[in-house]
Design brief:
Blueprint lengths: L1 E3 L16 E3 L7 H11 L3 E5 L9 H5 L1 H7 L3 E4 L7 H10 L2 E4 L4 H11 L1 H10 L4 E3 L12
Parallel strand pairs: 2-6, 3-4, 3-5, 5-6
Antiparallel strand pairs: 1-2
């Protein structure tokens, strides 16, 4: 688990705003930390991206986490990257005030991020300061949309 206001040691203000990442392999045991983070998020509109969990044995548990976020007062919008309506995916990502990406099959997630056009939008929004919470990929210690 890592929480950073920068991106891999780069200048956090390179694009005018600090990048805010909260990287973890699982929400298990993270409840106390997440509860402290909620006020910082301001109960913003969350793009909840469960796609990686579709291809994981334990995926149903990850997908149910959107109810947990809602119970904490977050305005959750589930974004299915396998939805054929790309305009809906892009609209939800552009309107999001925070991103939460479920854990699961990273390769499947990366395929869907790229084929839907979501990777570029998320990367751009995170560079603008939109918080990213979610899974860690083991390449260069970056997040799945790096």
């Amino acid at each position: 688990m890592a929480y950073a206001d920068d991106w891999g040691g780069a200048d956090p203000h390179a694009h005018g705003r600090a990048r805010r990442l909260f990287l973890m392999s699982s929400l298990v045991g993270m409840t106390p930390v997440i509860r402290r983070l909620i006020p910082d998020l301001g109960c913003r509109r969350m793009a909840f991206i469960p796609t990686a969990s579709y291809a994981a044995d334990y995926g149903v548990a990850n997908r149910l986490m959107h109810w947990w976020w809602r119970a904490l007062g977050v305005d959750v919008h589930v974004v299915d990257l396998t939805d054929a309506r790309r305009w809906r995916i892009h609209d939800e990502l552009r309107r999001a005030g925070v991103f939460y990406v479920c854990g699961g099959n990273t390769f499947y997630l990366m395929h869907c991020l790229q084929s839907s056009g979501a990777a570029g939008i998320i990367r751009e929004r995170v560079a603008q300061g939109v918080p990213y919470l979610g899974g860690v990929r083991r390449r260069r210690g970056g997040c799945a949309v790096d």
